[in-house]
Amino acid sequence: MKSDAEIVDIARSLRRRCIMMCRGRGQGYVGQGLALADLMAILYFDEMRRDGGAELIDRLVLSTGHSAIALYSVLGELGEYTDDELATYGMDRSRIEESPLAGLPGFLVTGGSLGQGLSQAVGFAIGDRIRGSEARTFCLISDGELQEGQTWEAIMSGGHFRLGSLVLLVDNNRMQADGDTVEIMNVEPIEAKLEAFGWSTLRVDANDVPALRAALATTRAVSNRPYALVCDTVPGKGAATIEGFQRTHYVRAGDEVWANALADVQ
Amino acid sequence: MSSLSCMTGGGAERSGVRQTDIDALVARMPTMTTGITRQAPFGESLLALGRARDDVVVLSADLSKYTDLTPFRAEFPERFVQVGMAEQNMFGIAGGLAKSGFLPIAVTYGVFATRRAFDQVAMALATGKTGPAIVVAFLPGITTPFRATHQATEDLALMREIPRMVVLDPADSTEQDAALAAAARHDGPVYMRGLRGLVEQIFDPTDFEFRIGQANLLRHGPDGLIVGTGLGTSWALDAQNELARQGMSYSVLHVPTLKPIDSGAILAMASRHRTIFTVENHSTIGGLASAVSEVVTSEGLGVRVVPMGVPDAWAPAGSIDFVRSELDLTGVAIAGRIMNIAGGVESISGGIKNVVSS
Ligand SMILES: Cc1ncc(C[n+]2csc(CCOP(=O)(O)OP(=O)(O)O)c2C)c(N)n1
Ligand SMILES: [Mg+2]
């Protein structure tokens, strides 16, 4: 098991990668990438189990397609993609698409049409139950995705089928494309709704590594209820320059901004 | 030119000369412009409509900033409904508004209006005594840097399937303005593709007329026929220019209304040509190519239809210029494909002649 300091180091490396990915074209979903770096570092370097051959037993279903940058950064850390290739993020001819389709290494589902991922995670979890597999399924969705009806159909089925192996991670950054989630279409109180649908819940500051690790550890307890972690995140976390772009779904900026952001993270 | 002359002329005896129809198309050819663009024209025309009519209610599913709704929202906040990212709910709400006498204009990306909320659009907006209701669908075809998740490449096909649904694919900002106005006058549901951001102007707005169900001849030449819709028409014009550089004069028929389609105009032009090249910013299945084929086959014309558009595969991601070139949809590529096929047309037309010589 890695120390908190080691996880923080890995998260820093992921943040650096997110910024480098956007720097080429001067644009990208950097706010989401930075906000999710701590969660990604913990999931892929601690929480998700690997077999003897170091293949993942547990899995992450990334429902929020545009947050792919966070997953790319961790896949880069794991050597699945080179930094040179990641630097082509969003460019013509690059397979490092801003919102990739299922089948690209590391991506189990197509997430860009938001609100569909949790249903597929339910499918993975049902499959594990049928097969007698011990695998756990993590599914990352955004607060915006809580507005799609299908997400609630999936939540209802997760509770109904008592999928104890399923963990929902809500990237609760309180923003969406048109503004603050609370003003666009309020999704709170998230825990009370989920509990009414048969889920266990916990809210956590997902940019606090020890707190997030403790929360994820709680979800491991064998149970017949699916678990939801409401992950409060700060877009741009870890790079003050990017945090300064408040409530910006998509960042476009000149090279100076990216250079400053990189310096913030070092 | 000589290699193509076999494509023309011979068709007239097949289905009767439609010279009067062609004359009418020529008489009302719209005036074209080039090199002009407008920023967010949809925002302006929607605002104008909102000022003219107080029954207009605009709905957004968390994309108002991205679909040029800001001017309307700012001036008419009480007639702007933000539903959050919930497209199915949005079209349901639009249905309720339509049934209670409002003119709902529900705006999102084409993929979410059609794939995500197809059933809601069909049931809430197209059944019962629904009056006017407008769906405006942005990011048509390949006008997005993302791939399948955002490229609406089958929306026209899906919408054509819904009874009563009018389906529009405007080619430029002038036509988009006029199409919105026409949709607002129409008594029934309309699906209209939208172009956001910097939009080209290819039609001169002075005296521009848009009629639902009416196609327009944009270029009149004897050597061949290209039929286009939406941005496909500007690609067709690029190809027409390229062919002109090579000494050939092609007709371009613009079909902004996919449904109800202007069969008269298509049949009139088809009667003069053995091959119709269709160009669309959409899958070659179910959209313009299919609609044109339905028209010519139901009339028994032995005309070959050659579809150009997005093939039956998920298109690549990237800039529109990149994707166009990957899909052979640049003017040069389209002209090249036309030349290849037209070069081999002699044997094909021979075969066709035998079949339809009655
Ligand atoms: C089904 C669907 N509807 C609309 C969109 C367009 N869209 C892309 S991101 C986004 C904002 C959603 O909010 P959230 O997912 O919370 O975004 P973030 O906080 O990461 O900016 C929207 C509406 C989409 N991708 N999918
Ligand atoms: Mg959000």
TrEMBL record, chain A:
Q: Does the keyword Mitochondrion apply?
A: no
Arranged from A to Z, the UniProt key words for this protein are: Thiamine pyrophosphate
Cofactors: thiamine diphosphate
InterPro entries per the UniProt record, alphabetical? THDP-binding, Transketolase_N
Q: Start and end of every Transketolase N-terminal domain? A: 21-252
Q: Does the keyword Chaperone apply?
A: no
The UniProt similarity line reads: Belongs to the transketolase family.
Q: What is this protein called?
A: Unannotated protein
Query: Which organism does this record belong to?
Result: freshwater metagenome
Q: What is the lineage of its organism?
A: unclassified sequences, metagenomes, ecological metagenomes
From TrEMBL, chain B:
Q: What CDD domains does the database record attribute to this sequence? A: TPP_PYR_DXS_TK_like
**Keywords annotated in UniProt:** Thiamine pyrophosphate
| Domain Transketolase-like pyrimidine-binding, first and last residues per copy | 36-201
User: InterPro entries in the record, alphabetically?
Assistant: PDH/Transketolase, THDP-binding, Transketo_C/PFOR_II, Transketolase-like_Pyr-bd, Transketolase_C
So which cofactors does this thing need? Answer: thiamine diphosphate
One Pfam match, given by its short name, reads Transket_pyr
Family the UniProt entry places it in:
Belongs to the transketolase family.
What is the protein's name according to its record? Unannotated protein
